[in-house]
Amino acid sequence: MVRRTLTHLLAAGLFFVFSNSGALQKEGLEEKIKSKQIELEELKRQIEQNRQEIERLKGKEGEIGSQIHRAEKQIDLLKRYIRGLRSQERRLERSIRRETAALRKAQRE
User: Fold this and answer.
1) CA angle, corner 53, sides to 49 and 56, nearest 5?
2) Residue 103 DSSP label
3) Average pLDDT by consecutive 10-residue portion of the chain (109 residues)?
């Protein structure tokens, strides 16, 4: 009988300990879940900020790309202009040489 009572008391004590530890574990899990949810919300916010930053940078990339394209066109136009000026310079130098040669020939005669 003592043995049976002791067994019952021991079982009741273990039940009390385990039932309380289950409640403590449940509270601990709930706290972990809440902290993970907060962490998840923070990560979602950071992801959204990163997406917005990506969109902003894509817009800038497009602007810079069009500026580069315009600058390249201007460079091409300037190169053509310089080639035209060099060609004109060569024609003028030939013309000056011909006229100088004709003038010397006329002075000798």
Assistant:
1) 140
2) H
3) 63 55 76 94 97 95 95 97 98 96 89
